[in-house]
Amino acid sequence: MVPEGFGPVGLVSVAPLPGHGVSVGALVLLRHAEHPAFTEREEGLGRLFAARAGAAMSAARLYAEQHAITQVLLRELLPPKLVQVRGVEFAGGYRASEDAEQIGGDFYDVHPAADEDGETFALLGDVSGKGLEAAVLTGKIRNTLHALHTMAGNYQQVLELLNATLLSGSGPMRFATVVLASARRVRPGEDASLKDITAISPTAGGAAGEMISSGRDLNRFFDALIQGRLLYPAELREMQRTRPTGSDDGRRYGLGMESRPLPCGGVYWGHTGDFPGFETAGGATAQGRRASIMVNLGPGSSDAQSDDMRAALETALCADRPGT
């Protein structure tokens, strides 16, 4: 406890660091043996400093504990991150109206089915009011619906049970608006008839449906882009300035273009896309290889299908090269 090189200790003064009901430590003052004893004024100053330091340390510890509790509660009350469930893509966004109030009465949730053929239960709602009180009721509604999601086939009964639960609680009465929905991916049987979906206007997809082309033209486009025949070199470099996406396959994303490593070495540049009934994947290498793949399959794509298409594309780009 004595600092190195301090020398012989003549006097020691110890003052507790008082906290909120419990001491948070002690202030120890040492005086060298060659120096005179502590004066009454010095000891009083030490006790005053210890009292204020103890109060500050206690307040900081209390704030840290409350902050940790608040963060746990926030994580539980904020809407979840939405992902693809059983082949159905869910997306949503949540933004607080005020920086000081990260939680409130708006909420959404998705509860996946227990098996592949079951229905995924989704809900969207809004509690009257705002702030912490609305957020508490939001959490109660979400927890109740989580317990009832196995009854997703009977929305009326779910809402009646939820309503009864809310009415049985104490505190100020608040009303909530809730929308329930379910989604299930239907797998057509072997004898299912094919449905022509080409009547869908691709303009519904915005930029994703602005161009109707062929595989040959798509290959020419990728090749001209990667070989530098469409853009100035500086513009192409900006498109190829990529960032990691965090995916296991090493995919990186730039300005409207992505790169993926090839199993035979090197990378290829391209993009994928899908629209109801169709999925495409294409790309080109700096060495002049290019390929495009299109699948016409309803009702839509799946992770397994996308993996198979990428594997086929990489096989085409690696054809006749060492390592394939």
Summarize the structure.
The protein is an alpha+beta fold and 324 residues long. It has helices at 40-77, 131-148, 155-167, 215-226, 233-239, 303-318; strands at 9-17, 25-32, 84-85, 88-89, 106-111, 120-127, 176-183, 243-244, 252-253, 258-261, 267-275, 278-284, 290-296.
Q: What features would you describe in this structure?
A:
With 324 residues, the protein is of the alpha+beta class. The chain contains six helices and 13 strands. It has helices at residues 40-77, 131-148, 155-167, 215-226, 233-239, 303-318, and strands at 9-17, 25-32, 84-85, 88-89, 106-111, 120-127, 176-183, 243-244, 252-253, 258-261, 267-275, 278-284, 290-296. The strands form four sheets. A six-stranded antiparallel β-sheet has the order 8-9-10-11-12-13, sandwiched between helices.
Helix and strand arrangement:
Elements: E1 9-17, E2 25-32, H1 40-77, E3 84-85, E4 88-89, E5 106-111, E6 120-127, H2 131-148, H3 155-167, E7 176-183, H4 215-226, H5 233-239, E8 243-244, E9 252-253, E10 258-261, E11 267-275, E12 278-284, E13 290-296, H6 303-318
Antiparallel strand pairs: 1-2, 3-4, 5-6, 6-7, 8-9, 9-10, 10-11, 11-12, 12-13
Helix pairs in contact: 2-3
Q: How many strands, what sense, and barrel or not for the largest sheet?
A: 6 strands, antiparallel
Unreliable sequence segments: none
Helix content: 25-40%
Estimate the mean pLDDT confidence: 81
Strand content: 15-25%
Instruction: Please list the strands of the largest sheet in the order they lie side by side.
Output: 8-9-10-11-12-13
- The tally of strands reads 13
Element string (H = helix, E = strand) = EEHEEEEHHEHHEEEEEEH
Distance between the termini: 68 Å
Large-scale geometry: flat
Can you count the helices? 6
Structural class: alpha+beta
Return Rg in Å. Answer: 32 Å
